[in-house]
Structures are given as structure tokens and as C-alpha cells.
Amino acid sequence: MITATDISKRFGDLEVLKQINMEVDTGKVVVIIGPSGSGKTTLLRCLNLLEQPESGSLTIDTQTIDFRDKISKHKIRNFRRLSGMVFQTYNLFPHFTAIENVMEGPVIVQKVKKPEARQKAEGILAKVGLKEKADTYPYQLSGGQQQRVGIARAMAIDPKVMLFDEPTSALDPELIGEVLRVMKQLAEEGRTMVVVTHEMNFAKEVADEVIFMDEGAVVERGTPLEVFEQPKEERTKRFLNLLKE
Amino acid sequence: MSLFNSILWLSSENIEILKDSFLPLMRGVLTYTIPLSLLSFFIGLVLAIVTALSRLSGIALLSGAARVYVSIIRGTPLLVQLFIVYFGLGNLGVEFLKFEPFTGALIAFSLNTGAYASETIRASILSVNKGQWEAASSIGMSYMQSLRRVILPQAARVSIPPLSNSFIGLVKETSLASTILVSEMFRKAQEIVATTYTPLLLYIEAAAIYWAICFVLSLIQGGIENKMNRYVNT
Known about the structure:
The complex is a heterodimer of chains A (245) and B (234).
Chain A: E1 2-11, E2 14-24, E3 29-33, H1 40-47, E4 55-60, E5 63-66, H2 73-80, E6 83-86, H3 98-109, H4 114-127, H5 143-156, E7 161-165, H6 173-188, E8 192-196, H7 200-206, E9 209-214, E10 217-222, H8 224-229, H9 234-244
Parallel strand pairs in A: 3-8, 3-9, 6-7, 7-8
Antiparallel strand pairs in A: 1-2, 1-4, 4-5, 9-10
Chain B: H1 2-9, H2 12-56, H3 60-74, H4 78-90, H5 101-126, H6 130-138, H7 143-173, H8 185-196, H9 199-228
């Protein structure tokens, strides 16, 4: 479903991503972990083209982009629709109600008729447990509810993959569970997901593959069991030990 | 003696003048002051949005042109701009640059509003969190769709108070159009003074009418702000 080859990205002199390769099969959940500044968020943003790598190529579903070519805006837009992005700070549209947030992509981008889009949005909101909050503005919702609207908004464009950028990092501890539950449910339904997170228990339970990144490179990858219980690399061990403290 | 005079000032004769002058002044308001204000404000607003987006475009030619425009307009008096457009261009001998007084005033006021308001709009666009652009892009929106659906509606909320300031300022500045013989309200007042010789009375009356218009505008501003604030926690 996703094939990323030799993705490199720099911010000025800083090499944030060094020839990253990754592969995600349909229906699999890949969790990316690593210390802050390791490039994990940048990698995720590259999958959605919010950042454009200098080199490498990326395939999602049937579309491929080679970053050495000049890429048209049209192509970028089409490519973005393949993935649904969930942001750390939700980034809901504050001037729209919950359901309007969810309908916005289908109505404006995919030109779905409003009644049809509303019906679909109601279904998605029900799925994330927010049916009764449809007509509420984001500021009236808790952080966990806002993030669930964020997930619903991303799902509404029927993406082939879901990308989560530290979806629970901005949440109060007691609100994290409700968001993780929704994500777990999506994983169980067989959605292809890439998740950047610090929630190690979520990674252990849900991930098919865990990627540990440090200093812009993949240090280690494997099943949760391999990475968490029998890490081979010194840096992975150190990072995991820091988390236990 | 002077106190006595002041009390006598609102004599029946003066009240008569006030009554007689009110309708002509209001005609000036309705036929020139308000249309001129509204039209120049809306043309100016369109100019301002284009200018602000040019400034923010990152395209050197566009942002440079926008900078020069804003700099020239902000660096010169409105009265001078008005004279250049009406008397200056009108004197070139080119037929289509000979404007009617109203058109000349409309051009000068629109250009002026456009420059000032562009800074307001630029600041309010920048005040919208970068995450909003990203969220809009992430669901597949184009630049124009993001702007229209996500960014400008939020920028609008921020820009209402300073834009209201600009509009209220503009209403009062239309009095400058009297200098190029637009029969707006202040011009009417001057004409009446020329026959009645009661400058204090007429100019205070004109001032009161300007104040009343601006008072109504402030009320409208409050209403718009309330409507726009419905989605923020206040």
C-alpha cells in the first residue's frame, strides 16, 4: 500500500531524514517511535506531502511520486487525498461545527452533494462516538472529542491510509484512552495506518511493525515483540530504558 | 454679553435654518456620502485582499508591486491623491482620464482604502494558525479553496474591528470630496453657509450628522462581531 524509497529531507544544513525506506502492506499498522528530533514526524508529514523530500520516491496505492521531478500542484493534491492526516493539535476548523468539519472534504474537494455528505458524516461521527455532538463547535468539545472529530474528518475523504501524528500528545491523560480506542477500532477493521506516537502500550497491542528512528534514520524495525522485548541496537535499548524510568 | 449671545444662539431664526438645511444635508448624505463610502470601501476591500495576497505570495514581482503601492498611498495625503486623480489626470488631455467628480473621488478613496486595509488583511491572514492551512491541504483543498473556506473566514473575524475603523474613517474623509465639487453632505453645508452666513450652526449640524452615521456604524460593527464570535470561547 505504501512504499517509500530513499526519502531524504533537509531543513537548511540539518539532514532530518537520511534515505529512509519503508513499506506498509494493506491493512497493516506501522508505529514509528523515537526521541524528539528523530525525524519521525517529518517522515509522516512527507507521506502526506506536507513536507516535500528532496529525493526519493513514494508510492501510495497506485500513485507514485519521484521527488527529483518537478511535481505539479494538481498531482500533489490528488496524492494527498490518498491519506488522511490526524494532527497532534487536531487543527479542526473552529468556525465549523463538528459535522461541518467532517463534511468539508467531501463537499468542497470531492463535490459530494450536501445531504449525501451529511448522511455519511453522521455515520462517521457515530463511529467515533460523537453522534450527539454533530452540531457542536470545536471550542465546546474536550480535547479527546476534538481529536476524534479530527479522525472523523480525515476518514471522510475515504483515504487509502490513515496517518496519525502524535494524536494523543496534546491530551490530558484521562482523555487519551478514548482516542486510542477509536484508533484501535480502525486498526481492527483492517485500515492501513501509520502512527507516530509515544504510547508504547498502544504500539505493543496494535502495531504489526514498529520502527525506531533516531537522528533521521531508521535504527531498528520489527514486530513489537522484537523491538520492545529483544532490541538489537544499543540506541533502541537506551531509548526504551529512558521510557521505563 | 457673549453669554447672552450664546443663549440667544438657538434663536427661532437659527432653528428655522436648521430645519431648512436638514433635508438638503440628508440628500447629500444619501446621494453622495453613503454611496461614495460604501462603493469605495468595497472596491478598496477587493484591492486590499489582492494586495495582501500579493504581499504574502512569495513571488518577488507581486509582493514588490504590492509594497510600492502601499508605500505610495500611505506616504502621501489623501487630499493630494484626490487632486492628482481629479485635477492632475483630468488635465492631461486624455479623454478617458477626465473623470466626473464622483468617479474621481471614488477612484482616489478606493485606492486609499485598498492600501490601508491590505495591511489589516495581511495581518489577519497571518494571525490564522499555520495548522489551518495544513489541515485544509490534508483533506485535498487547493490554495483558493483553503483561502475561501478556511483562512479568510477566520481572518475576517480578526479584521472586523480594524476594518470598521477604516470604514468609519472613510465616511468622514468623504468630506474631502467637497474640494472637487462632489455634492456630498459637507459640500452642501458649505453652500448653505454661503447664503445664510451661519458657519458655526451648519458645520455643527454637519458634524452631528457624521457622528450619527458613525454611531450607527459602530452598532452594526458590534452586531457583526457578535455573529462572528459565535464559534470562539469568549
